[in-house]
Amino acid sequence: MASKKPQASPQVAISPGDQVIDQVAHASSHTASRDGNCPAAIQTTSMALAPSSYALDDLATTSSSDGPMTRLFAPLAAPLSKSSPKKDKSLSHVDRSPTRRRPIEKADPSTATSPSPSAAAAAAAADAIAVAVDGIICAAESREASARESSLANGGATSPDDGGGRAFEAASLHGGPFAASELGRLSLHCTPVVTVDVGVGNDNGGVVAEVSKTGAWSSLDGDMLSTLTQMLRSHVTSALGVDLVAEARDVVARSMEADAAAENGGKRDKRPVITVHQWMMQAAKYSGPDSAPLGSLGEANLEPGGGHRRLQVLLCGLEAAGVLLAIMACPGIDRRAVEDDTIEACVNLIKNHIQKHLVPALSNTGHLGMISSLDARFNDDSNNGVDEEDSLSPKAKRAKTVAPNRGAVAKSLKAVYTPILATVGSFGTILERAEEFIKVNEMDDRLLFTLSATALSSLIIDASPIVRADAASLTSIVQESAMDLIASIFGRYPRHRSIIVEDLFPLMLKLPTSKRSLRTYLVKKRTSAASSSTAANGSGGDNDYIQPICALTLLLIQSCVVMPSQSDESAVQEVDTKEREDEENDDEEKPASNTSDTSGLDGCDAVCNQFTSQILQRCYRKGEEGGASEFRPILSNLIDDLLHVRYMIEFPAAEMLLLSLSHRLGNDLMRASSASKSQLVEATYLATAMDAFGKITSHVAGTLRQNRENPLNIQYNMSTSEPEPEEEVNRCFCGRGNLDTFMVDCDRCHSWYHGSCIGITKDAVPDQWFCDECKLQTAISDHAKVFTRSKEGFEAITTRDRNHVLRQFSLGYISSIAQSSSSLQDEKTRQFFIASWVRDIMLQKKNPDESGTFDLELVRSHVIAQWSPPSHHQKYHPKFYVTDHANSRITTTLVACSQLSASFPQLLGVLLRLMGNDMTSLRKLSLKAFLQVANVDSALMTQPSVRKEVSRCFHDAAISVREAAVGLVGDYVLQSPHLAVAFHTPLLERLADVGISVRKRVVKIFRDVLLSNPSYGGRAIAMHLMLKRADDRKEDDGVRDLVHETFHTLWFNGKAFEMGNSTLLVAKDVTPDDPGNPGKIMTTAQLYSREVAKQMVDVVKLSGSSEFLTSLVNGLLFGFNEGDKDKKTAERKRRQEDSRNQCNSLVLALVELLLSFEETRAHKEEDGKELVALLSVLSVFSQTYPELLVPHIDTLVPYLKGDNAAKKFETDIVSAVSSIVSLSSSHFSSVELARLTGGGLPTDLVNIAYKFPPAAVSSAVEALANLANHPDAIAGSTQEKRLLNMAVQFYTYLLKNKDNLGINMKKSMRDNVRRALSALGSICRFYVCHDGCDSHTLDPNGFSIITDVKLLRFSGNVLSSACFALFRIYLEQEDESTKCLALRAMNGVFISRPRLVLAAEQLGIITSVLSEAAPPCVQIESLRCWRDILLAEEKRIESGAAKEKMQAQKNVSLSKRISGDQDGDSCISGSVLTKHADRLYELTLSKNENVRHMIIDLLGHLLRQGLINPMATVPYLLAVQGDVESPATRSLALTLLINEGEKRPDMLRQRICAGLKQAFYFQKKVYHHDASGVPRVTALLTRSDGPRVITETIFDAVIKESAIQNKRAHREGLLRGIISLFEKDPDSENTSIDQLPLLAFASEILAHLPYTALNDPLLIIYHSSCITALDGQSIINQFAELLGGDLCDPNSGEDDLERATKKGIFDPKDFGLKSKKSTDLFGQLCVNACRILPLLQLKNFLRKAYNISEARMTEYVPSEKERSHEKGVSISDSTPAFSCNFDPIFDMEQRINWHNASKIYLSFRLLMRDCDAEDLHVDTEESKKSPKRRSGHKRKRGDSDDDEQ
Fold first, then answer.
1. What are the angstrom distances between the C-alpha of 133 and each of 141, 190, 227, 1041?
2. Helical H runs in 1579-1715?
3. In Å, what is the CA distance from 984 to each residue of 9, 180, 969, 994, 1020?
4. What SS3 class is residue 1343?
């Protein structure tokens, strides 16, 4: 359409009254006739013309009788309800979002440049106002004059009937000269004079109406205005004296006093009593028996209707205050109208109304405070001067003690609250006019502070719905108006900003804290980092709430913005110079946004920094009023709100405040990390700061992740022409399809959108419409043409250039909000956005590489040019308006590019640095904070720096830090299972962590990983290590039970994880049952069993043994023997039942795997390991439920052929299958037995015995023997014959070659001999000879070799007796391997016939194999044999075999059978072995590591079976803790010590000294000597835990794992026992030189024991001081006697001998040491000093290592209680290890080494002097400080506090 030339439009001046509406309607109709689009413009004009919507309800209510007001608002109500975005604030639902502003718009008065008609209209309006005001003043003055005349005529008295009386009555009713209707008329004139310029052309050629406003009161005469303000002030002054709530309380109190008096039996007061409702009624009378005429009380305010009259005074005062503020805020007003008294009166009325009326009415607290006053009145009235309680009647006592009914009082006061709450709307108007007044007038500081404090006090209102259902909405109206007022004061008066900010913090402590009242400020949730989707209708999301104090803080910051300067490069240079100066003057890190005032944000920065500093300082305080405990939750809630509104473009200051908080919190945390011990930050503040810092960082991480995953992609296209669409598609952002609904087509890209999503209806379809993406593309293209520095094309546009265009869209959106609102704060929001944009441009100019292609100076000028708000006819071009959905996307994109988001690497770096800090608490807190970040964006865990720090935390010294690191990785692994490999190895290492909680956490992680991903690649090693932990006897019961529960869930639950749907699934394998079918239908349960079977096979394949798996399966099926005390017995029973039910499915799955394996294997050597694992797992189930393997024996028997194409693993294969056959044989039926033995099974077993090594031979013989022993086997069965024939052949071979043995025999002969011995021993062990029973008296010489092999048979033990004699011959051979095999074979005879052990003992066999002369391999084999004998005997008894054997014997009496389940052979082996206990103890000192390990294992079995004395054994077990070169032996001995410690807690403490000595002698004997021949003895161990090297003693594990560490008495007994080694031997005067290495060994242990409380090292220091004080001083005196007092004065400082030693010129002759006697004596004294020196060095070491003060050492007594703050001590890792090694004083020929002796003398004297000086210094200081210590008193050994008293 062709554009029309704009014509001059007439201006219409609008004045109050009915004429206003007519003129506006005429202008509207005239404009509408010219353009069809004009009604909208006129509607906007109507909005601007409307008075404040606050006043609509209240003015209509309070002045309902005033006709002019009703006529004025009636025509305006309709347009307001349709067009205004602001609802009436008196409604129950009030929109408190930043877009809520009222339509009244403040504008500067414009000079009348309109044609004369408009000027005449304006003048006419001014004349009309003057006439109306003059008439009102004259009427008031006339009434006042009439009242004076009437008073004079009546002699000073007034009558209600005359005019003067009515005037005085009206004055008392309204509180001033004006009537309520007159005040209402004056209020109508407070509306500014509005000029409508009709016919201004817009960009589209349309016509709009431009509205301008001028003050109505500025046209009045000064004298008239002064008179008017004085009259109005009288109303305000009268209203100041009104306190409706307090006066209503007095009415209630009088009524309650009367009722109480009547109840107490006294006389009722004759004065009439009224209720609050009567008091508030307009026309009320007294009622009741004591009624009296009005005025009889003498107090008009307490008469019926008195409350109504007081309310009218208050209402008129409020109306007058609003008029006064409107007059004083009018531009161009005569200054005589702005008087200080008037201003003060208005401010005080605002204060009184808020504090005395609105606060108690809204919060329903007006009744509080009545109780104490009423109690006082009751006491005064009832006692009447009598103090005795007896003077009161029982009813009076109850009245005195029971408080008045609060509910009744509160209910009565509702009659007052209701009219008070009706003033909320008019009071909001008053606050608005006060805000307007502040903009144009200067106020006194005192009044400013009063007004700001009053406005702040409104924030503490806790709205109560009891008074009124919409109390919360009314409260919000008051609070929002008050917040706008505070923000106006804050922006108008910079000098008061710091004071107002300080006032915020005491206010925070009074804010409501309930969940209902905490967040009441309504905002619109347009987008969030947690959700990338928006509302389908494009409305921007749901409403949400934040704290009013948070909204106020942001408004205050935004109100300080000023216009940026128009400087160019010089501004940037100025910024650089200022920042450099700031860096030089302040070493504290500051936010990157701290620039100069060229951006206009310096005032905002100052307020932001002050607020941040103050709130964090208050969070840091402790022990003060309003301290940290109150402010820390406030800080947390504040940050939550700031993060919530960060995506709301209406709160741009939230970004600045968050940036300031993040930098300050980061600085505080970094300073705390480097603070000294004297400047340590409180732990609670660190936790608060870290939590807040983590919240901010995680929110930023979420922002970046959302922008990364859902970026705002705009396809750049320089062409502005319409693109040719390939096809018309639905591209609506809601994601819905082409529904049967109204849709709109984009005129450029021809994409379709739902009309409901883009806000277009069928009735309002525009002629041309473009989608958001096309608008963005077009805008970017237009901006690129204008702002691009070079003509490189559109492709050169960068992300930063695009962000400038996006900011322009956001600015248009904010401007539209500010344009529709009259609030200064909305305009400040727009200006703050512009200033932030300018600041970012300046920062980009400092980094040319990141500035983009736009000319930043040109962009800057363009941005600053938009500072002034656009007028109504200067609206933004429609192309800069997009849907709410696009605005949300734009806001999210800009937030992701903000300074806070750009600082994310620094924020993350702070957390990573703190994770490596020395403070344990900081490391733990930083890990938890980083966990928040990782939960938001798990991709961060892939960064090398993050993985490095987290991996380091896995080796942290603190268990809590390691647990936090494990938990972090656990969550990360579950979120990203495909990345679990990165932390797989560190997690495996933590399975062996010393922290129980860490191990539990790792187990849970692997459980969850395996449940979510059963085919996890690292499952085998993880399961293997977990099984290993569960099998460790040292493991904690909780960890062990968790492992058991984990494997029960994974393997025996059946519902642990779903491998597909619950319906039938198709497996990938081809089953042998149906080869033609490409897949087999398998249920979920079958697939589950198959997966479990694979896991079991993988575990066994990795570990190479099924030992751990066997232990687990047996435990799950039959219990782990945890004992009845365990609380999880029922849970374990349930697990056992589930495991039994699952076993059959697992066996079937294993067999299926075996068959599948055979079908797919390539018969390679490597396949053997898989086959062994499969068979081993089957063997495990054969041990628990052998009957399950019976149906599958035919599948397994072929493997006994020994031709399985796995030569390397054939032995393991046949051993596993033989074991399965052996265990399952007892469940064979007679038919099955006959079928198997009639086939090739016996032959295969015999062949194994001939072909395979001894391990396989034993399994095969056992299987064949069990087949022969089967109950259904007939005599002379095939298997028995094969077994006997095999025995005869091997026996014959051994008999034949018994004389041909020697060292030089051939290898083949040696192998055959070993095979024969192994087979014969196994036959003797496993074949049960039912008719063979040894007598009680066996002749040891009655065993002989049978040379005629035909006489060999099983019956009568003939074969085993002959074998025993034959084995003796081979045992005596020189070949060690043959001796071991003979001993092992003989062990088989001992197991089957225990009484032969007695014969072996008598023959000296046992003594010889355990003797020192026996080779180590023989000793090891003998110990292993004894272990096997004990285990077999134990198994025989527990299985009931011994009982069956005893019952089968005929010569056993009935009493023997009843007395027990054991036979006479059960204790023979243990008794014989106990006889050799001393020799067994000696073997613990063997130099062979394997011998030591084997003997410890045997001692463990002896202790468990009670066959050896624990008191005698424990020292040797402690001694083995010194076996530092054999960790396995130490671990085994430790397990035994822990078990014994649990049974006998005191025994370890009692035997520790003996164990220490034994450990010293152990190392001295076992380990090699150094080059000088001195044994290498050490009590310390070092181990690496990541980057840390930890020093510990050989007894650390014993103390930590046992109960010693947890009980103070045990710890002190242990320490006293070790220190007793240093005490002087009472039987000898001198110390033996051989004792010194032991003392040095003991001192190293005392230095590095794992102390948990400071009392432990203090106890050592105490006893050390006692010993050195007595014995040390005695040795010094002996030196003095030997050397002479001149050379060695015990009381002097450094002597001549010490000086000579230091200089290296010591000569004994110079000191009289010439004779041998003196020389020997000097040497012996040096030896005696060496007994004291370790204690002196130990004392200094402990004092430094544990930072013990001298005063603390002196005040300590052993009987004192442990102090709570001294618990949990630990030695620093940086402390060097303690060493106390002395050079030898005498050489090998017992000659003294003077050099070493003099050094010892020097060290001894020096340490003794230091010790004495410390004691003297401490005693002197303590005598001054503490009166309890006597001056000069030095504690001696054995002193205590009781002695001093």
1. 12, 12, 10, 92
2. 1596-1601, 1608-1619, 1636-1648, 1655-1667, 1673-1683, 1696-1703
3. 81, 83, 10, 19, 12
4. coil
Tell me the backbone φ, ψ of residue 852, rounded to 5 degrees.
90, -165
Question: Is 1068 exposed, middle or buried (CB count within 10 Å of its CB: 0-12, 13-18, 19+)?
Answer: exposed
Q: Fill in the DSSP letter of residue 162.
A: S
SS3 call for 803? helix
For the chain, which residues make up each domain, given as ranges? 11-220, 223-489, 773-901, 1621-1845
d(CA 1090, CA 1151): 10
Which residues make beta-bridge pairs with 523? 544
SS (H, E, C) 618-663: HHHCCCCCCCHHHHHHHHHHHHHHHHHHCCCCCCCHHHHHHHHHHH
552 alpha carbon, distance to own chain's centre: 31
C-alpha to C-alpha distance for 1807 and 1400, rounded to whole angstroms: 62
Q: How far apart are CA 1147 and CA 1799, in angstroms?
A: 76
pLDDT by residue (tens digit) across 1018-1066? 888 999 999 888 887 778 888 888 998 888 888 887 665 543 333 333 3
Both structure tokens of 15: 């004045």
Three-state secondary structure string covering 657-712? HHHHHHHHHHHHHHHHHCCCHHHCCCHHHHHHHHHHHHHHHHHHHHHHHHHHHCCC
Secondary structure of residue 1575 in the 3-state scheme: strand
Rounded CA-CA distance 1634/1464 in Å is 50
- For residue 472, count other CB atoms closer than 10 A to its CB: 20
Identify which of 795, 790, 756, 523 has the alpha carbon closest to the alpha carbon of residue 647. 523
- CA-CA distances (angstroms) from residue 1475 to 843, 1422, 1481, 1507? 91, 15, 12, 10
DSSP string across 1278-1324: HHHHHHHHHHHHHHHHHHHTTTS--TT--HHHHHHHHHHHHHHHHHH
Rg of the Cα atoms in the chain: 50
Residues 211, 49 contacting (CB under 8 angstroms): yes
Instruction: Quote helix, strand, coil % in the chain, to nearest 5.
Output: 65, 5, 35
**Average pLDDT for runs of 10 along the chain of length 1845:** 35 35 35 35 30 32 34 29 34 33 36 49 73 86 82 58 49 78 85 50 40 60 85 91 88 77 58 77 58 50 79 91 88 80 92 91 79 47 43 42 58 87 90 88 89 91 86 90 92 92 91 85 58 34 78 93 71 46 42 54 92 90 64 91 90 93 92 73 85 93 90 66 63 76 86 86 86 85 78 66 86 83 81 90 79 82 85 55 83 90 92 86 87 86 86 83 85 72 86 87 88 84 89 80 87 62 36 44 80 90 84 76 50 70 88 89 78 91 89 91 84 92 91 89 91 88 90 85 90 86 76 89 86 70 84 82 90 88 91 88 91 92 92 78 54 50 65 89 92 93 90 92 88 88 81 89 80 70 76 87 81 89 87 89 91 90 91 88 71 80 84 84 90 92 88 88 80 81 82 88 88 51 38 37 35
DSSP-assigned letter for residue 963: H
- Which residues 6+ apart lie within 8 Å of 158 measured at CB? 147, 150, 151, 164, 165, 168
The token pair that represents 396 in the structure block: 């009076």
Q: How far apart are the first and last CA of the chain?
A: 111
- Distance (Å, whole) CA 557 – CA 829: 10
* Torsional sign, CA 1133, 1136, 1137, 1138: positive
* pTM of the full structure: 0.69
Q: How many other CB atoms sit within 10 Å of the CB of residue 1402?
A: 13
If you ran DSSP here, which 8-state letter would residue 550 be given? H
Residues 642, 1133: Cα–Cα separation, whole Å: 54
